[in-house]
Design a protein that fits this description.
Layout: E1 5-8, H1 12-23, E2 28-32, E3 45-47, H2 48-56, H3 60-66, E4 68-70, E5 72-77, E6 80-86, E7 98-100, H4 103-117, E8 120-124, E9 127-134, E10 137-143, E11 146-150, E12 152-155, H5 162-166, E13 172-186, E14 195-199, E15 208-214, E16 218-224, H6 231-234, H7 237-251, E17 258-271, E18 276-277, E19 280-282, E20 288-289, H8 297-316, H9 326-350, H10 355-370, E21 423-428, E22 433-439, E23 442-450, H11 454-459, E24 466-469, E25 475-479, H12 484-490
Parallel strand pairs: 1-2, 1-12, 2-8, 5-14, 12-19, 21-23
Antiparallel strand pairs: 3-7, 4-7, 5-6, 9-10, 10-11, 13-16, 13-17, 14-15, 15-16, 17-20, 18-19, 21-24, 22-23, 24-25
Helix pairs in contact: 1-4, 1-8, 2-3, 8-9
Length: 503
């Protein structure tokens, strides 16, 4: 009987993990409590880094076709503009810094891609009632009644993770008291897609309001609740209508709109100390919670899922020992802590936790209206890719960073020829060439690039350099001796003949 990989959670994180495993030829069962994709926009901002990963999985096209790209944002104090955000975006970039897309679309696109592989069984409407984990895997009892034996269990079942609870694990960190009313509204207007934030607007004095445009004439409106405000009262439709109508009137938007979805959010900076627990591995909100400011939740979860899944695929194929997954915790927990540090600063600014912080924040806002040099303090610190330092990174610049955007001599993006697995860039004196290669039992793609090419200049590569690229697009090593097999062995991989445990 083939080993079974079970993914708990059919949200974007769980589905990304399942799709990555399926692209590596591995069958996966996904357990999702909901009957289908989620309701409400939820996590809407998808970063360039996430789009790069989705592209490697062959599913970026529907995201780009439906999503709304944005590169700018504006912050106001009352009605006065105090900061304008412009994110780096060059003509050669394949993807914008961010797109806005409702989470239910993201889940549907990923679920469709999973179904097309023929290797992913998504069991909608099934809840995990019990988990018993041991050294050889985990036994899951489902509702409605069924029992699954998993050789590996990926827990991507969200902030209220049943798997985490069943294993008696707890997130560590802190929570912030200030809450936000989160709404989707249908509104037709001509505003462009951009992040807009109002501090202390006349419409809702003492509050902060955030607006994002989404596809289908849907707008996300986040309103900070007052300290001590009753959230049950705030969630009443009539009170939502009064709050949002006052703001739309203040900014001159149409008075006709429809409430589509509502929720209340509170920021947390929490994480497990370890993401790998025997044969159970945690990802996304099941592993860590970060504030929404800087849009790090969904995007860090997608990075978690892909990082974990390509490494687990190597383990399943006998090309890496289970201990190789220690690099997953090392890399993604370090990324989580970096996210928490940046997001905490943004949270303190967006939702000051004490009167002292309120005083300091308001002073910065006031100074920014008159002195441009203070406006940089309002920067929301958007999500960005992380530098990795682990046993799966062999060191030397630019090792530990994602391969940047670069154009080959024939005009194509380097990323368009990388493939979905390991790749090796060889900078030599001849022209461009792409060919499959094998070292031991591990396949990779060799891409020969002229050392005088603009691509080499972008990467800082010299004649004779060999770049080893991981399946997630990170540079694992810059080799002067060209010994690809030696580098892979130093990462902890086995190059012996593949032992497909599922064959």
């Amino acid at each position: 009987m083939p080993p079974r990989i079970v993914v708990a959670g059919g949200g974007p994180v769980g589905l990304t993990a399942a799709l990555t495993l399926a692209r590596n030829g591995l069958p996966v069962t996904v357990i999702e409590a909901d009957a289908g994709v989620c309701e409400g926009s939820r996590a809407i901002c998808i970063s360039r880094r996430s789009l790069q990963l989705l592209d490697r999985l062959g599913v970026a096209a529907p995201f780009l076709a439906k999503g709304l790209a944005w590169t700018e944002g504006t912050s106001y104090l009352g009605a006065a503009e105090i900061f304008h955000l412009r994110m780096p975006h060059a003509p050669e970039d394949r993807f914008p810094p961010f797109i806005n897309l409702q989470q239910y679309y993201a889940e549907q696109f990923l679920a469709d891609a999973c179904a097309a592989t023929g290797l992913v069984d998504i069991r909608w409407g099934h809840r995990i009632a019990d988990v018993k984990a041991g050294p050889g895997g985990a036994a899951l009892t489902l509702t409605p009644g069924d029992v699954l034996d998993a050789d590996w269990l990926i827990a991507a079942d969200g902030a209220r993770s049943t798997v985490r609870e069943q294993l008696g694990l707890a997130l560590e960190g802190r929570s912030f008291e200030r809450r936000y009313l989160i709404t989707d509204i249908a509104l037709k207007c001509g505003w462009p897609t951009a992040r807009k934030v109002w501090f202390d607007p006349v419409s809702n004095p003492g509050s902060t309001i955030i607006m994002h445009r989404q596809p289908d004439d849907v707008w996300r409106v986040d309103c900070q609740l007052a300290e001590g405000e009753d959230e049950h009262e705030a969630l009443k439709d009539e009170n939502i209508r009064a709050r949002i109508s006052a703001h739309l009137a203040m900014v001159g938007l149409p008075a006709e709109w429809t409430l589509l979805w509502k929720s209340v959010y509170k920021a947390h900076t929490l994480s497990l100390a370890e993401y790998v627990h025997g044969r159970v591995v945690f990802a996304g909100d099941a592993a860590h919670l970060v504030p929404i400011f800087g849009v790090r939740g969904l995007n860090s979860g997608v990075d978690d899922a892909h990082n974990l899944a390509w490494k687990l695929a190597l383990v399943m194929k006998g090309q890496a020992p289970p201990s190789f997954l220690a690099t997953y915790t090392a890399e993604r927990r370090a990324a989580c802590l970096e996210n928490i540090a940046a997001a905490t600063k943004s949270t303190w600014f967006m939702s000051p936790p004490s009167p002292g912080y309120v005083l300091a924040r308001d002073a910065v806002l006031e100074l920014a209206t008159r002195h441009p040099q203070f406006r940089v303090l309002i920067d929301p610190r958007q999500s960005a890719a992380h530098a990795y330092r682990s046993a799966a990174i062999l060191g030397g610049p630019p090792a530990g960073l994602p391969l940047p955007e670069a154009r080959l001599g024939d005009g194509r993006s380097l990323h368009d020829v990388l493939g979905g697995g390991f790749a090796v860039l060889v900078f030599a004196g001849d022209g461009l060439g792409v060919a499959p290669r094998r070292v031991g039992a591990l396949d990779y793609l060799e891409i020969r690039i002229f050392a005088g090419d603009a691509c080499a200049a972008t990467l800082g590569a010299k004649h004779g350099d060999t770049f080893l690229i991981r399946p997630d697009g990170y540079v694992a090593a810059v080799l002067k001796d060209g010994d690809v097999g030696g580098a892979l062995r130093r990462m902890g991989l086995s190059l012996e003949e593949e032992r497909h445990a599922f064959a």
